[in-house]
Design a protein that fits this description.
heterodimer, A: alpha/beta, eight-stranded parallel beta sheet, 8 helices, 16 strands, 30% helix, B: Elongation Factor Tu (Ef-tu), domain 3, Rossmann fold, Dihydroorotate dehydrogenase B (pyrk subunit), domain 3, 15 strands
């Protein structure tokens, strides 16, 4: 498939066979989707956020549907880095794909502990989650102040053996400020957008739809916001951008690529269509064929 | 055993009670959804409207392996299920399944307890247990005299009814009916609202009867990846490494003793 079309990209020094990965938190560590998707076909698998110790996450209900999207407040439930290294990395190593590990923490020290623990592991990239809106400490708290973004990026870069990608929050006045701060701190890439903080009220029960009251909004409804932010960020920094936010099909992915993203991630769409990642890859390739595009790099940032 | 999201055809749809619908879905020849399904498992049903992107998990009410059909009985809970209820014979709907783990068939007398919209999954279970030669007793909890599905249990089980308003059977809940009729069994199987399941668990523990409970929680992926639909477990779960189990993947049927409700 696609011998005459080049879908591969160099992302922060890592060769990806195509520019498509999964959005953290929507794909576990790939095992559950293995029944639907040939993981070998993905440019990379981005795993759910992992912390230095296991996290219980938030009370239920943790999700609700919204018009053209959803809210989630999972609260970064994760099994902790020890089990992740023992079980999830070996699972993914069976496949011919890159592993991007999403790292979360409540303090800079906790992020660093995970990063150091991953130093000897054969993974492609670290995605540092400084943008989760659903945890009380850490997460977004580091992602809304450019000084903190630069500081934590620098501290992680000092210890990291793999390229570092900072995952940015859209819940800021100017996302390019955060992207520049990450770049100044030495980040090798940025990924955006994480979810938009939202709320839903259950009018029949007269209470919040989520136990956490607020949650992160994702899905097709957020796509125009995400495309705009990716475009702005791609023009603000020299490091590559991994774009995401409501990508459900190849047309959506192409918008992000043309806006300047070197890679894209499929997230919420996996819940509606477990084959969404593969459909996106096939669709992008078909678009290239129809439009006489030999190399995907011709499309990246082509809108100027 | 690869799972698939596929398109099923509506074989029959009827309203069986106020806001409650029964729909038979037909699957194509090459698909083994019906042949693999067991009582207690569920299907994820997808809306055709792109504004509603999450699947609706609905438990399996009956399985017809020969005809490759599955029946679901569901309550209209919002716009998604309202959309499903408008489907007519021959129309298509996207479905994934069968998902989750079903009930296990145990020796001895079985006591099936269904409350409200938790009644439908008990029908296939009653059938399977009865076919396996087990003695089956069913306690059905309703709000009022609208006893949907009750007579369909008659060929398979000895039936007891409780109603909240006392119009039929024992006034009160399913436990009141069990006590009123001194119903004894070797295994309990239950599906219904959380307060009912709590009551069933307490009754089972008190009487030292093993119980399997079918849980419900808001889901997104339906296959164990997103960690939306967790319930608390008594001991640390091997997969999550915390005291949370995934309702969609580890359940929806759990041993009453492994979950905290």
């Amino acid at each position: 498939m696609g011998s005459e079309r080049n879908l591969s990209v160099d992302f922060a020094g890592i060769l990806m066979k195509n520019p498509v990965t999964t959005a953290s938190g929507t794909f576990g560590s790939g095992a559950e989707y293995d029944e639907f998707v040939d993981l070998n076909q993905l440019g990379a698998v981005t795993t759910k956020g992992v912390a230095s110790v296991p996290w219980e996450g938030n009370p239920t209900p943790r999700i609700c549907e919204t018009y053209g999207g959803m809210l989630n407040a999972i609260g970064l439930q994760n099994p902790g880095i020890d089990l992740f290294v023992k079980r999830d990395i070996p699972f993914l190593k069976q496949y011919d794909t890159n592993i991007i590990v999403n790292v979360c923490g409540k303090t800079p020290e906790e992020y660093i502990e995970v990063v150091e623990r991953l130093a000897e592991e054969d993974i492609a990239l670290l995605e540092i989650n400084i943008s989760c809106p659903n945890v009380k400490a850490g997460g977004i708290a580091f992602g809304q102040d450019p000084k903190l973004v630069e500081q934590i990026t620098r501290r992680i870069k000092e210890k990291a053996r793999q390229p570092v990608m900072m995952k940015l929050s859209p819940n800021v006045t100017d996302i390019t400020e955060m992207a520049r701060a990450a770049e100044a701190g030495g980040a090798d890439a940025v990924s955006l957008i994480n979810t938009l903080t939202g709320m839903k009220i259950d009018i029949n029960k007269r209470t919040f739809a989520l136990a956490n009251k607020t949650g992160g909004m994702s899905g097709p409804a957020v796509k125009p916001v995400a495309v705009r932010m990716v475009y702005q960020t791609a023009h603000a920094v020299k490091i590559p951008v991994l774009g995401m936010g409501g990508i459900s099909n190849a047309e959506d992915a192409l918008e992000f690529l043309m806006a300047g993203a070197t890679m894209v991630a499929v997230g919420t769409a996996n819940f509606h269509n477990p084959m969404a990642t593969i459909d996106v890859i096939k669709g992008v390739e078909a678009f290239m064929k129809e439009n006489g595009v030999k190399d995907i790099k011709e499309l990246i940032g082509c809108v100027g | 055993m690869a799972k698939i999201k596929t398109t099923a055809q509506v074989f029959r749809q009827e309203k069986i009670s106020d806001g409650i619908y029964s729909m038979w879905l037909s699957f194509q020849e090459q698909e083994n959804i019906a042949s693999e399904a067991v009582p207690g498992q569920f299907l994820s049903l997808y809306s055709k409207d792109g504004s509603r992107l999450l699947p609706r998990p609905i438990s399996i009410c009956e399985i017809d392996r020969e005809e490759r059909r599955i029946r679901i009985v569901y309550r209209i809970a919002g716009k998604g299920t309202e959309e499903f209820s408008a489907l007519t014979e021959g129309e298509n709907i996207d479905v994934m399944g069968p998902l989750g783990n079903g009930f296990t068939i145990q020796d001895g007398t079985a006591l099936l307890i269904g409350g409200g919209i938790g009644i439908p999954p008990m029908l296939e279970l009653a059938k399977v247990l009865s076919d396996a030669g087990k003695q089956v007793k069913v306690v059905l909890g309703y709000r009022d005299s609208d006893l949907f599905l009750k007579e369909e249990f008659e060929p398979y089980a000895e039936i007891y009814v409780s109603t909240e308003d006392g119009s039929v059977g024992t006034k009160g809940n399913v436990i009141d009916a069990i006590i009123a009729h001194a119903v004894h069994a070797d295994t309990i199987y239950a599906c219904g609202p959380l307060p009912m399941l709590r009551g069933v668990k307490a009754f089972a523990v008190e009487n030292k009867i093993p119980a399997e409970l079918s849980m419900e929680e808001k889901m997104a992926c339906g296959i164990g990846a997103c960690l939306a639909c967790v319930c608390q477990s008594g001991e640390k779960d091997a997969h999550s490494n915390v005291c949370n189990k995934r309702v969609c993947k580890d359940g929806p049927v759990f041993d009453a003793l492994e979950i905290e409700i």
